[in-house]
Amino acid sequence: MPTSIQTLHADWQRQYPTYLSDYQSGKKSYVSNLLPQTAVQFSVYQTLDILQKRLGTDLMRKALDPQQSVASPVLGRDNGQWLTHSRMVGINVRTIGSFWNVINYILTLPACYDSIHLLPIWEPGVVGSLYGMVSWQINPEFYSVDLARFIPTLDTVDKQLKVVVNLIHAMGRTVGMDVIPHTDRFSEMALVHPALFEWVHRDGHRLIDHSSTVYRPVEEVIWQFLHQHGTADESPITYSKSVFFSTQIPLLTDEQRHLILFGRPGDYGGRLQRRLDLIKHLTAQGFETLPMTMAPPYRGLHIVPDDFVTDEFGQIWYQYSFNQPQQFSRVFGPLARYKFYHSLNDNRDWQLDFDRPNQPAWEYICQNVNACQQRFGFDFMRGDMAHVQLRPEGVPATPDAYYDPLRTIKHYVQKGTPHFAFFAETFLAPPDTMAYGNEVDHLEAIDADSTLGDLQSMVVGLGTFNKQLCTYLELAETRKFAPNFTVMTADKDDPRFDEFYRTGNLFRYFVSLFLPALPSYVSLGFEVRNQHDERGANEEYTKLYVFRVADDAQPDKVTHGPFVWGQNADQFAAIGRMRAFAEQIWNEVVDKPVTWLQKPDSESTTGTSLAWRVGETYLFTAAVGDVPALLGTGMLVFEESNCRVYRIS
């Protein structure tokens, strides 16, 4: 008979003193049988009491002081290669409401999950997209009122994030942030520093100027706005236009520029209104940033005359399209990429001059990411859209310092934090599809430590899955980076991708947990995710909380209210048994070599069967689909849904 969430919750209510005691005493590294939807309802007092008993008074006192830093568990490593063996969990903070609830969720995870990836933490812009950062301010919606009430000194979202990173470190995990080489289309960064972005001038739906120097009249229009409307902080204008806009003249700090143009960081409403007024001022004269693109040819755009939307403020937004689109070409209308390179021939033919990097843009993003890492203590970055490779001739044989911004950011941060690692968002697509050239060579060129991959985008057991898994295993053995065995991401928990998760979920989870040959990634909520034989409500998908759409005219994206946790009690119970077994044997298998007895059959189209030994003690087998599982030797010590573990010595 299927288990119900209510049954699991009733068991928790009966046995929670034992489960908590096992965690608080150190007998277990997590709170057994704790549903995530229950964990995020813990009161601040309850969570602090649990952690104080687990970590001790001195460590808790240090962790809860935002002026102090708890050392990372990978402090002292001289590079980021530790990430190639990581078991990572991705968390869209919006689905759980606050940074503080990240701690509650981690209580449900055994220690084998050693890395926590926080989806973008920045203040968002258009449609509330987490990937359309509008400033370097931390997203205020992730502030916990309850935490501030209980600990009044934690009265800003910045302080709360610092404390959460401290606690994640104290709980033995590393923590990573998204690094995004683009911003909201009219971000504060683009308006304070027009020269760091690519601008166009249009007359209605006609592009009349996309030359490399459009930013200069943009600066003049913003300068006029500043004189007409006054400074946001009411300070006198005692500097020239060149001083205000230049990142190379140190008479004004970046913080001062933002105060002058937009006002105090904490005045979110005032800053938003000021930015909207400036956007209207610019667009009334036909100026806007060029939208970001994905995949070749990357460049060469025009406005689609009859494809536009009018937003709630009466602003018209035209859709752009490629002059010569290819299979994966895409324009991201709400986003603008930094202008990392100057153009050839004044951009008349849309070509970039890779021998002339726009150095201020590189310095600007490196300095800001580094400041964030130093302030909060992040251990790694997930490089968003790391697959972007703009050079039509492909990956150069000897990449220079300005080959790729994410590579440069990693090296910049590593000067002060050598262990800082790079988790790249690429999908290991075939050459010349998602990017120019070979994506594998690109990953090595950008010094990625691991990459997301795309196993989460395939049905387990089909030929495409088997071939890709074979490729990943070969790459992990022969390349400097390691592809992840990715179970699911917040971006793939989407109604369009339900078909990937109707079968093989326990196989995915088992292999991701127990196969040391690859690092692995799974997102919050997979453990209770509904099977969705039919499309669920929008509120059941974490992807639909990456942005915030409240317009019922967009039925595929609109959400009403908070994220709704899945009710898949059977999956939670099965995953719980895997976690409990992993807890028992982890010290015997961690960092041990892998010996393959049966690799995936790249020719099989009806299932997947794997068998591998870890060290000299345990044999693991896993099968899904219409293929037999390899019968292991030794004592059977664990079995779950055609996934087995044998003790062989």
Rg calculated over all Cα atoms:
25 Å
Q: Give average pLDDT, whole number.
A: 96
β-strand amount: 15-25%
Return residue spans where pLDDT drops below 50 for at least 5 consecutive residues: none
Provide the helix percentage: 25-40%
Total count of helical runs of at least 4 residues: 18
Global shape: globular
Strand count, sense and barrel status of the largest sheet are: 9 strands, parallel
What does this structure look like?
The chain has 649 residues and is of the alpha/beta class. Helices cover 31% and strands 19% of the residues. The chain is built from 18 helices and 27 strands. The strands form eight sheets. Strands 20-19-18-17-5-2-1-22-21 form a nine-stranded parallel β-sheet. The protein has a five-stranded antiparallel β-sheet with strand order 23-24-25-27-26, with helices on one face. A three-stranded antiparallel β-sheet has the order 8-7-9. Helix 4 (57-63) runs antiparallel to helix 7. The chain starts with a helix and ends with a strand. The model has no long low-confidence stretch (mean pLDDT 96).
Structure keywords:
18 helices; 649 residues; globular; alpha/beta; single chain; 5-stranded antiparallel beta sheet
